[in-house]
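Quarterly update, task 2.4: flavin mononucleotide-bound model.
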Amino acid sequence: MHRIHILIAMDAHTISQGARSIKDAMTRELALAGLANEVRVVETGSLGIYDKGVVLVVFPDAVYYVGVKMEDVTEIISEHLIKGRIVERLQYLDMPSGEAKAGDKSARVSKQIRVVLKNAGIIDPESIEEYIANDGYEALGKALTEMTPEQVMEEVKASAMQGRGGAFFPTGIKWGFAAREKSEEKYIICNADEGEPGTFKDRLILEGDPHAVIEGMALAGYAVGAHQGYVYIRGEYHMSIARMQRAIEQARQQGLLGKNIFSSSFSFDLDIREGAGAYICGEETALIESIEGKRGEPRNKPPFPPSVGLWGKPTIVNNVETLANVPQIILKGAKWYRSLGTENSPGTKVFTMVGNINNPGLIEVPMGITLREIIYDIGHGIPEGKGFLLAQLGGTTGGILTREHLDLPLAVDTLRNAGAGMGSGALLVVDDSQCLVDLVKTFVEFFVHESCGICTLCREGNGRLLELLERMTEGKGAAEDLHLMEELANAMMRGAFCGLGQAAPIPVLGCLRYFREEFEQHLQGTCRAGKCELHAANEAAA
Amino acid sequence: MHDLNKIDEIIQAYADTRTPLIYVLKDVQKEYGLLSDEILTRVAQKINIPLSEIYGVATFYSLFTTTAKGKHIVRCCNNAPCHVKGSKAVLDHIKSYLGLEMGETTPDGTFTLEFTSCLGLCAVAPVMMVDNEVYGNLTPEKAVAILKDYKMKGTSHA
Ligand SMILES: Cc1cc2nc3c(=O)[nH]c(=O)nc-3n(C[C@H](O)[C@H](O)[C@H](O)COP(=O)(O)O)c2cc1C
Ligand code: FES
């Protein structure tokens, strides 16, 4: 029996900061100290602390250590594990998880609720036993033994959960479209192509709690009458692919995937499909084309995937976070789910906070929280005493929010009224030392790079926008350029073939709307921030 | 000239997979390092899909390459979250150290410099990826020091 567990966060962030070698050293040194039978080192998903180096937590004391270096390993063992004295030098007190010690009042804890992330960083994601010990697969068991497929669907409908992939379409209604199709062959696809800049929530869910996604997919399969699912994972996400593969195999071994699950007549199996590097494949019909082995170009809609999807069959495409919510809705009920968040946007939302912020990373908060609470309470504000310029919510296609929106409750309807959206849940915070025109150029460069090229408005439109912006930062802009940009952006929003081209101009128009004077200043030859090429050129000329 | 017989084995391995083209191309690229005309022609013959369609797929996805690249591929992220944390200065320093513009390969064939879209590591931005390894919290100096390491070791970290 192990007396102590050390959970070491093994996610792309900590691996890039040396977590693997720390884990190896820890295991080695424990063996040398004769503690191998007493202390167990377990890899876990992200612990919710990102830019603080290697992160680990010692249980049962729940002491978090950050910035752990090779030379600290023996100290942690000799001081904490052997003598019971916390190494305060490395201790992190602003714990992100709801598992914080009683009496802890830090904002990062009190404002967050963990539904989707309830297991991430707490259980060993490579162990199906630990998932099961935390109510895992109970929802599937309940559905298959006590509920009809219609009842499962009705529960999800009643929860009013909206899809977390960006469009916020009600999940239960989408399932209903596929359920009423008469077909022997239907598919459930989990969209894990996450490529929206600033977004890494789906990866951390997959890596931290893969079985929740599997269970959600099986429940979706039961509700709509599908027997096969695919998890489409971005090709660059090597660890997510490996963890998911392992989880699928474990679930098969336990009879939780495969034939006659829970001795019912329901059979369901899963396979992984890997992406090959194309942002547009996150769009559901492009994703389907990609699974079919083709170029990932979006299809014409309608027909929509719930009627005609993968290999022409009815198909549900849901986001990772959407599916990870499903087991708990079935287990705890729609009423419980609706008690979280706001009336029109129930539930929690997982955000990734990035950019100029002191405490970047993944958070889960109830819908309806304000931008100010996220940035200043949870995110600890902006570094180096700089001011807040803007936030972009939802990734590179997201709307622009400024100081006037700091107290707006963040929910699907309130954001829509403000001309923005929640999108992928990426929250980019930008401080006032940044050049706005340079920033907009970065947005547009992304679209030029990622446009699939089938429609002229997106391909040429983004290219022309970039030219205009480059002209501006080179000091060659003309007065009518702003007007031209607006005209072009509006034409793209109306006429582009898919969501990429239609959404690409949103941040451009947002910045033109709120920060027009900055563009005008560039046209007159000055850059407030002194960061773009215009500034460099002015310096050279002086 | 490559020994192209491996291609047949790879295709055979996916006999049970429905629409396996992308998987086949991934494995073929792993085997041969690139997807040349000669290689794609063989794939087309064996898998019974028109060459034009296969070529379309091979050129669509950024993880596929139809031309030879350096031993190490340096992929820099310059999306907005990395940008506001100073990725441009990092990129400029890398460019001048390697003497390359984006998409180019050093004359000795050691490095190819490319863009990557966001790798989802923005909490430790700015970020780059060398082969399959990711590096975060970069400064211009740190990035170049990492590349110097690769150059000295001369071995693949992948
Ligand atoms: C350009 C573009 C990129 C998208 N990328 C993603 C993505 O990476 N992940 C995702 O879940 N949905 C993405 N979507 C939305 C999907 O098309 C689809 O609406 C979603 O997967 C449905 O899942 P949900 O109902 O659970 O939200 C993207 C849409 C567009 C237009
Ligand atoms: S923006 Fe560079 S890793 Fe996300």
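Highlight for this quarter: The CA atoms of residues 105 and 112 of chain B lie 4 Å apart.
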